[in-house]
Write a structure and sequence with these properties.
Blueprint lengths: L8 E6 L3 E6 L3 E6 L4 E2 L2 E2 L7 H15 L8 E6 L2 E5 L2 E2 L2 E8 L3 H7 L4 E2 L2 E2 L9 E7 L2 E2 L7 E2 L2 H6 L5 H24 L2 E13 L2 E5 L8 E5 L3 H7 L5 E2 L2 H9 L15 H19 L10 H15 L1
Antiparallel strand pairs: 1-2, 2-3, 3-7, 4-5, 6-7, 8-15, 9-12, 9-13, 9-15, 10-11, 13-14, 15-16, 15-17, 17-18
Length: 308
């Protein structure tokens, strides 16, 4: 995908998986590419339809949660493009965890019971439910790895005020509860996810993507308890299988490590997994759409004209 150029464009930012165009002072055009990242590294090959999957799940979820919290989204002019309001972001990722999995499990297995100021009770197994969901925030790094941080440190560092933290936490827990509800209807468990917020005219606004496979981890509910009892691995829908493949091939984003080669079959497998996740989470068949750069540009320009 080529880089676009729009009238009134004031900035361009190429993220790990998204290209973000700032229009004037108040609009953002977010193009979800087919790039895939893991361990904060962009992998060498794009994944067909990944951008469309992420963008359409995010739009669906933003629409399904707008009664809880205002969000940035205004229009979806193309399958992999969203246009929304430009906010002043909080440099915090609000990570909400309902189950002991991933980074939380690795921390727990090392013997620690405190994660970002949240206490994890003794006696849990990997993937077990926490008694109530916990928030384990991290700092939003401009470059390199995001880092764990406690609410106390967030307020001390001036990343938000105590009152804002209270509001952000409330929103995050309510959004997670809604995400779990939506997932349950589809036979899934939302195990963990992350939210990003910003401020617009003094109001806290939900930004970025919500409840997508890149920002969340889902388990299949069917057979979950039995698998927990027998110690079997849980069936999950997330990007974790890509991370596991990288770890198995001795890559964790550390210095001196080389990204393993991705063959066509593996790229296709990842694409199919993303499509499966879309269909499971949304409950509708995925309709692949491939637009030329020209057509995408045309649609974005038309949408911007209407919004300006």
């Amino acid at each position: 995908m080529n880089q676009f150029s729009f009238p009134q464009q004031t900035a361009f930012y190429k993220g790990k998986v998204r290209d973000v165009y700032t229009i004037g002072n108040d609009l953002l055009v977010m193009v979800a590419s087919n790039r895939i990242s893991a361990f904060d590294v962009i992998l060498p090959r794009p994944i067909p339809y990944k951008g469309q999957v992420l963008n359409q799940i995010a739009a669906y979820m933003l629409h399904a949660t707008k009664d809880i919290c205002p969000n940035w989204l205004l229009q979806v002019p193309a399958p992999n493009v969203s246009i929304g309001k430009k906010c002043e972001p909080f440099k915090i990722e609000m990570v909400v965890r309902g189950n002991l999995v991933g980074h939380a499990w690795r921390t727990y297995a090392s013997g620690k019971r405190d994660l970002c100021g949240a206490t994890m009770p003794d006696g849990l197994k990997e993937n077990d439910f926490f008694p109530t969901p916990i928030i384990t925030p991290s700092t939003k790094a401009d470059a390199g790895h995001d880092e764990d941080i406690s609410p106390k440190e967030i307020i001390e560092k001036g990343l938000c005020t105590a009152a804002e933290w209270e509001q952000l936490s409330n929103y995050a827990l309510q959004l997670f509860a809604r995400g779990k509800e939506i997932a349950a209807k589809q036979g899934l468990i939302l195990a963990d996810t992350k939210y990003e917020f910003g401020k617009l005219n003094g109001e806290i606004v939900l930004m970025d993507e919500v409840h997508t496979p890149d920002s969340s981890r889902y388990f299949y509910a069917d057979g979950f308890e039995e698998r927990q009892q027998t110690g079997e691995r849980q069936k999950q829908l997330s990007k974790e299988f890509v991370r596991e493949w990288l770890i198995a091939n001795n890559f964790m984003g550390k210095e001196g490590q080389t990204v393993p080669e991705m063959n066509d079959e593996w790229v296709n497998t990842i694409s199919q997994r993303y499509i499966e996740l879309y269909e499971k989470v949304i409950g509708e068949p995925f309709v692949p759409q491939e637009l030329s750069d020209d057509e995408t540009m045309k649609r974005i320009s038309a949408a911007l004209q209407k919004l300006s």
